[in-house]
Amino acid sequence: MGKNGSGKSTFSKVLVGHPDYEVTGGSLLFKDKNLLDMEPETRSHVGIFMSFQTPVEIPGVSNFDFLLMAFNARRKNQGLPPVEPLEFYSFVTPKVASLNMNPKFLDRNVNEGFSGGEKKRNEILQLAVLQADLAILDEIDSGLDLDALQDVAKAVNRLLTPRNSVLMITHYQRLLDYINPSYVHIMENGRIVKTGDVSLAKLLEREGYRGIYGS
């Protein structure tokens, strides 16, 4: 959490290797490997996923084909054989149902003509399919009505295991009513200035950032 412009989205984009950013020092260690030595697609293959605030549209590519290609790319990196479309359909349809999405959603082009809520659900569907070890969710609650927010939160909760992690960026306490965080970090000027439990977010909701660090 943090004010607009505090560096939250920048931090996330650097983690996944966004080309708009150049890292001039330091390292990013994930599973004992330096992410700075990897291209963005390689970072994805080793288990990092990011949900963007404004997902891009990909005309001419169906959701099903996109998910199948991404899923098989990760399996290849893990030394596993690719799955065939029919097998993958059996794998993906329960995940679609868990997000209260129409199965016909898979036939639509990626994010093309989607509402804001549909795009956010689609991002979580991608996360569910790729089974990432570290998921970075940048304002996944933005633009969601209450029903969609609950569906997305339930899906995220189902994906959490002792072997993976989720880093969420949000401005609002309401998301944390459904996803209980282990830690809440407050960022300011590109640095984490305060860390606590969910009570820190509740304090922020009541008193704003002045209640956090008096500014």
UniProtKB/TrEMBL annotation:
The keyword Electron transport does not apply. One of its GO terms (molecular function) is ATP hydrolysis activity. InterPro entries: ABC_transporter-like_ATP-bd, ABC_transporter-like_CS, FeS-cluster_ATPase_SufC, P-loop_NTPase. It comes from the Eukaryota. PROSITE patterns: ABC_TRANSPORTER_1. Keywords: ATP-binding, Nucleotide-binding. Residues 1-139 form the ABC transporter domain. This is ABC transporter domain-containing protein. The lineage of its organism: Eukaryota, Viridiplantae, Streptophyta, Embryophyta, Tracheophyta.
